[in-house]
Design a protein that fits this description.
- By secondary structure, this protein is an alpha+beta fold.
- It has three helices and seven strands.
- The chain has helices at about 25-30, 35-40, 140-164; strands spanning about 10-20, 45-50, 60-65, 80-90, 95-100, 115-120, 125-135.
- It has a seven-stranded antiparallel sheet with strand order 1-7-6-5-4-3-2.
- Strand 6 and strand 7 form a beta hairpin.
- The longest helix has 23 residues, at about 140-164.
- It is globular.
- The model has no long low-confidence stretch (mean pLDDT about 90).
Length: about 160
């Protein structure tokens, strides 16, 4: 069977990190727009929140801008990714599921991506897992997983600093 004839498995990008904080603090860092913009932008980016209503059916609009200037993989402008999202599921301290669309004229970045963040507490902290499916084909899987991992590392640092 050739690669063209083989059925394609749906793409799901993942990231996971154990964080030294209880799930309520992790969840609150996700649902507070001032906190979110501090830790969500991956390394090399900064963010801005235009709209944020973290409840089922609520929406958000974020702009992530590269700190080092234009890039070929920018989705909305030469140096920015503008994200329009909708909250599908908001289970306090347990799970957040969002649908995300990039504000992009480029077909390779269009389509609705679903991202689910889960927070599992143990006696010592919280394991945060991210799964993203229906990822637009223009997003390189390795770059996406590295960006997700960078956001999780930022979240861990943010919560450690906040606790100090």
């Amino acid at each position: 069977m050739t690669d063209l004839a083989r059925p394609q498995m749906p793409r799901v990008d993942h990231a996971m990190l154990w964080i030294d904080a209880p799930a309520p603090r992790v969840f609150n860092a996700w649902t507070d727009p001032r906190a979110l913009i501090e830790w969500l932008p991956p390394e090399g980016m900064r963010g801005r929140v235009a709209r944020f209503d973290p409840q089922p059916g609520g929406s958000f609009r974020l702009t992530l801008t590269r700190t080092d200037g234009p890039a070929a993989d920018a989705k909305s402008t030469d140096d920015s990714d503008v994200v329009e999202g909708r909250f599908v599921v908001v289970e306090p301290h347990a799970r957040i599921s969002v649908e995300v669309d990039f504000d992009s004229e480029r077909p390779e970045f269009q389509g609705t991506m679903t991202m689910e963040w889960t927070f599992t507490t143990d006696k010592m902290g919280t394991t945060v897992r991210i799964a993203a499916w229906n990822v637009p084909p223009g997003i390189d899987p390795r770059d996406h997983e590295a960006g997700l991992a960078s956001s999780l590392t930022n979240l861990s640092r943010y919560l450690a600093k906040e606790a100090a």
